Amino acid sequence: MNILLVNHYAGSPALGMEFRPYYLAREWVRAGHRVQIVAADHSHVRAVQPPPGDSVVEGIRYRYYATPAYQGNGLGRVKNIWAFLRRLWADTPRLLAEARPDVVIASSTYPMDIWVARRIARRAGAKLVYEVHDLWPLSPIELSGMSRRHPFIVLCQAAEDAAYRDADVVVSMLPKVHGYMASRGLDLKKLHIVPNGITLDEWAGEPEALRSDAAQALAAARLHTEGGTVVGYAGSMGEPNALDVLLDAAALLREAPFRFVLVGSGHEQARLAARVAAEGLTNVTLLPPIPKAQVRSFLAQVDIAYIGWQRVSLYRFGIAPNKLMDYMMAARPVLHSVEAGNDPVAEAGCGLTVPPQDPAAVAAGLQRLASLPAAERAAMGERGRAFVQAHHTYPVLARRFIEAVS
């Protein structure tokens, strides 16, 4: 098939997140499909911003549209979204002629790309697919406190309802969405669950050497703990990741043999760094994001991997975090601070789950994991790796996606 994937934030290992479009597209290309990805040239989640224009990565055709830079979640991001959608709308005739899509996938986190994708699909006589990363507008309402009457939220709701009404197929990364989507008008016969995952070839052979500053930070952390515990975090530094809770736990463990090394980027990064400095959290090191190929080396040198969430009812629909798949594939015991409709850590038996937004519980959970015999922590890690290999490899997920849209 000819597949046109619309994902505003699409990246690659060289650029940074989002990785899912690349991983799925690579498997589709390997299976003989032709894939064109269209994205914006500026995204808050990428480590490196690509130049606008066309490129080819491992047989995947990318087209990046010029969009204004922005920071945070304010008006600048809204302008960036509209610039991308306008350019995609204007480029429709060229895409129809060049990509000749059989399938058009709208997959940009926010739902407004469904209108442009629908236009392209109808003109091409293609199947229209809506891929759900997060439930917008519920995400900005429940995570950021936006009013349901806010014009942006009203627009998101109209787009989401149009997606459930007009899409031929809806693919969700979140596993517990059936009731909600049905309440918004989706015929559940259209719904397929395809979660996030990993690609096995990136875990084969020797890992890429860790960047010097990260390697030095981990070595220093190991030295200062004197046989204690290094807690690692690798991922976005945004409000949903609840990293303030981890810093609060680090403050509680200031006198204990723990060191915390966090790598990543995001709109909260500068504020978190300022907080570490202001509070004198000498047991915490924050570093810029490392290339995807080095995450494996980073995780190999931490004792416990941390992932946390806010306490919000939104997560009753389930979670599908990329970094958790990396943690589990790296065979690290995981401290998971969450309350959600699903919990891969508990399902796999690969760590410990504690309540969200509870620094004392996070600190106690870290101490409990650290107190376990090394062999028991290693067994936890191996259970996580086996779980991912059985359920979350991209060859399997890409095939499930194609079966859903065929």
UniProtKB/TrEMBL annotation:
Gene3D superfamilies: Glycogen Phosphorylase B (3.40.50.2000). Keywords: Transferase. Residues 16-197 form the Glycosyltransferase subfamily 4-like N-terminal domain. InterPro entries: Glyco_trans_4-like_N. This is Glycosyltransferase WbuB. Pfam families: Glyco_trans_1_4 (PF13692), Glyco_trans_4_4 (PF13579). GO terms for molecular function: glycosyltransferase activity. It comes from Rubrivivax rivuli.
